[in-house]
Amino acid sequence: MQQDESFFGFETRLPRDMEPPSARASTETLREQQGLLGDAFGELRLDELERRSGSSYNPRSSGASVRDPWASASSELNSIDNREIFSDLHNPQPQQQSSSSYGVRDLGVRSIGGLEPVSSSSHAWQTATSPNFFGEKGDVEDGIPVDLSGLMDDTDSFNSVHNRQEFFNEFTKQTYLPYTPREEPMSMETTSKESSPWGSTAGPFSAFGGSGTWSTAAADEPPTRQVSIDQKPENSREDILSTISRQVPSVVPNVVRTPMTLEELEREFMPAPVQPVVPSTQQTPHHDGVRSPFRQPTNGPAFHHFQSPVPQSMSPDRRGVPPPLPPPSPFGMMDPNNFRHQSPRPLPPGFIPIPGRMPLPGGMPGGRGFPGPPPPMRFPYPQQPPLRGFDPTRGPHPGQFMPIRAFNGMPIRGVGGLGGPMIPPQMLHHMQQQQMGPGFRGPRPLYGQPLRMLPPQQQRHMMSQVFVNQRYMHDNNNNDADYDDDQEVAGWMTEREKDWVIKVQQSQVRTDNPYMDDYYYYVRSLKKATKDASKGLDNFTEQDFILPARMASDQKEERFPANNFEGSLGKVCISSVFNPRKTVDVDAVNIAKNRAPPSNQKRRWFVDPLQKEKGHPKALLLGIEDLYKLVLELQDFSREVAALPEGQREQGIETRRNIINLIFDRLIQGTTPDVRIRSFCDTVKIRKGRELLRRVLPILFKEQLIILTGYCVRALPVLMDVPSDKLEGFDRCLVSVEGSLRDLPLKRLVEMLSPLIDTQHNLVNTAYTGQTLLSQAVKNQFALHFLSIFLARAEDCYDAEWSALSDAEREKWTLLVTYLFISLTKAQAADVACCPSEALREAVSQHIARFPFSPDAVAACRAKLGVKE
Amino acid sequence: MFAMWNGGQNNGGMRGPPRPPNVNLPSGTAHLLYELDKVLLFWLRDGRTFIGVLKSLDQFGNVVVSGTIERIYVGAEFGDIERGICILRGENLVLVGEWDGEKEQQSGTQRRDIQYILARQMEEEEKKAKVKEGLQKAMRERGLNIRDDPEDDLFVNGGGPFHAGILGIRRELWDHQT
């Protein structure tokens, strides 16, 4: 030990509360004997104490012989003898507190150093035993009289077994795992009860939820208790304990949920005898953690590594953001410093470290909820005799104690362990040696041996049996088994636990509305699907709707050179998606001079219908913009509805229909048919309007589509005026037009096309009359295509419906076909546009052939149309 | 259900071939469960590095690591501190990756005594702090004030918990106590 300390040389730099308690006790006693403390720190500390403790501080109640230093002059403070204040507690050794008149609580309270607890002693504990996270506690601790080493020894050491045990006891109240006493007589027993610091302080276990999790249990804790070690074995107590253990069936979980812990029972049955603490001569901590495969072999003592001033000396500097926790020893290992200097106390009977299922850590981020309860606790290593024990000469081994499940069902091995109340191997070793003698062999799972499948109930039964009935350990003295301590047990997590973790995590990403919760993935997959589905013009899908064809076909990027002028301060403004160029001067239209927008109109701008009727281009653009908004909204909404589960789509469909109707109504606005047609033509004149039409046509209902097709016929002169390179894929809307005409009667066709012949219906301000229009139409690809669709449909239903037409209709239709025929005949073959579809061309030529034209001319027309013979 | 145990072969740590992950996850998904019983390196948010065998984990990414060492690198030298079994809280993990001891050897880094490493580390940090202090001073003289807030919860760059501020504060406490 001497060598160890000198080896690191950090021992003196430990923070006070990191120091081993006994060591600190001795140093403080020394300091106090030298009068250092009272002289150097007296006034300052007392003032500080008063300030900090506030109203809860009442020195009068702390002891019988306390003078009230605060009532007297402050100059007196230095003269206060701590021994005087705490005269009754002055004996540093707890075994000398033979005067049984001190109640347990008194001792516990006074040990704080005059701080009176408010409700229970938890407040005082918070002050006295919380680790020095923020540097305040050291001050307080310096201020209190320090000759309480015998008490502080037990209570202040953060990692002391007693506190862990305490913590564990509190904890086991809430869990169903029983702990029953061992029935072997022990040479000495220690029950140490002080009020637990765990309940009120967020100690190193704050990772498990800290005070939030267990504070209630700690608050309910019965009054504290002083160390009581009985020198003579008390038979009656053993009887009682064994009786208790028989009464409480260890296997049944429900029984153990009695509000009374073993301690309380014990306290009822026993008068509290006082016994000295056994000096620590027996046990050398031999901490051998779980052997890692990459650990360097060590020749020295096994705890050489853990002779760690390192974490402590490091901690103030190394821990950056979070407050420095004590070294991770509570989880991984016990602080060897504590163990070396502390008298190893044998655990009280029945204190078997079985942390049950711990509650979920309180401070952890909550998920959306668990799919179910976590997997029940299950003993990871089914019982399998013979079990190989440990070699007493080698000290305890990681696998020595039965693996323990804690913390949400995770298995924990006996070393160090998780969750605090684990007993380190030192203590285990000690305990076992005391109980069973040196030849005892503890149970240990056989590594690599196949384990039997057992139903869960049986496993749980076995678990409690193995844990609780320590007799099991005696039955298995198998000396010839030698185990390889290099072996690491793999598979701490069972399949079930893994599944549970996965299930929990997946439950967090489950969504009922992927369009809202997982927009980008959903839209991407949607686009991908439609892209895969639609290859070509014919299958027009939603992809087309999402991505305009122009965008899809335009591969070349437009790059604007970023102009930087010499010596200029700014840059030339370049429009981008984030900074679009202002193309519409909204303000100019926003307010019609003498017309305020209706008050109920919440739109940002207001399109004056009159201006729009007059064909004001800006008003038109604004109207189109409005329609675009609706289209985008509809598009969004459709996808949103599609993402919903089947049952909830109904109302969505209704809303969608409303939006579509609104779009249609806006598209042909106007009081009279003439106005409507005019505004429609104006819309179509603008590229944006055409694009809008192209996008709107596929989503309209069929009747609306037919109506719009009629409008398109009216607007055909306008569309013909548009240069073909500016149509930009507008002809794709003919796909939907064709679909709308598919089962239309011939009568309707005649009605729709009659405006072409009837010149008086030509409201569009173009130079075309009926015949001139058609003569140009055959030279325009879009127009020819458009008309071909009508003719093809007429050819389809000609046989059935021609006879049903009235004479006027027949005349009209004949006139139309005649005009078309004449136009084709007159036109040069090179000028005649080419209808893209072979079937359409064939149908048109066949339809023309039905009428009484000369066969030669018809054949010429066929050739001009490009029909192959 | 007991497939992990029934295998008979011990795949924990670096021994043996990697166990085929017996985890029911959607394909193409990475998950820490695949890394169970492998030696992993954990890089914590405060810059510390832990190496150990991943033993267990939960849905928050809290992990139980056994046989853990804390490895401190100073330049091309490193030293280890044994940590045993520990829980690393998931929110503190910056990076987790498989760790290969052989590559560590090949990489030219050198194992040194931990005492030495700690001393070196302290030196380095003090040096850094000085540089930073000088920088801050220079900036202040130019009217710029770098706000060095050590208490914020931002990710601290590797090896960087030794903020000048922290160092200063801790130093005071330190001297005060000892």
Describe this structure in words.
The complex is a heterodimer of chains A (869) and B (178). Chain A is an all-alpha fold. Chain A has 38 helices and four strands. Among the domains of chain A are: 612-700; 724-868, no CATH class. In chain A, strand 3 (404-406) and strand 4 (410-412) form a beta hairpin. In chain A, helix 2 (21-33) packs antiparallel against helix 8 and helix 37 packs antiparallel against helix 38 (855-865). The radius of gyration of chain A is 46 Å and the shape is elongated. Chain B folds into two domains: 1-112, Roll (SH3 type barrels); 123-177, no CATH class. Chain B is of the alpha+beta class and 178 residues long. Chain B is extended. In chain B, strand 1 and strand 2 form a beta hairpin. Chain B has helices at 3-6, 101-106, 114-141, 164-177; strands at 39-44, 49-57, 63-74, 77-88, 93-98, 110-111. The interface between A and B is large, with 76 and 78 residues. Chain A: One of its GO terms (molecular function) is RNA binding. Chain A: It comes from Hypsibius exemplaris (Freshwater tardigrade).
Question: Concise description?
Answer:
The complex is a heterodimer of chains A (869) and B (178). Chain A is mainly alpha-helical and 869 residues long.
Features:
heterodimer, A: 869 residues, two-stranded antiparallel ribbon, 38 helices, 4 strands, B: 178 residues, alpha+beta, SH3 type barrels, 4 helices, cytoplasm (chain B), RNA-binding (chain B), ribonucleoprotein (chain B), U6 snRNA-associated Sm-like protein LSm1 (chain B)
CATH class of the largest domain in chain B: Mainly Beta
Low-confidence stretches of chain B: 1-20, 155-174
User: Mind telling me the C-alpha Rg of chain B?
Assistant: 20 Å
Q: Can you list the strand order of the major beta sheet of chain B?
A: 5-1-2-3-4-6
Rounded mean pLDDT of chain A is 58
- What's the order of the H and E elements of chain B? HEEEEEHEHH
How do the strands of the widest beta sheet of chain A line up side by side? 1-2
N→C terminal distance of chain B: 55 Å
Silhouette of chain A = elongated
Total of domains of chain B: 2
What percent of residues of chain A adopt helix (DSSP H or I)? Answer: 40-55%
Individual helix count of chain A: 38
Structural class of chain B comes to alpha+beta
User: How big is the Rg of chain A?
Assistant: 46 Å
Largest interface, chains and sizes: A-B, 76 and 78 residues
Main β sheet profile of chain B: 6 strands, mixed
Largest sheet of chain A: 2 strands, antiparallel
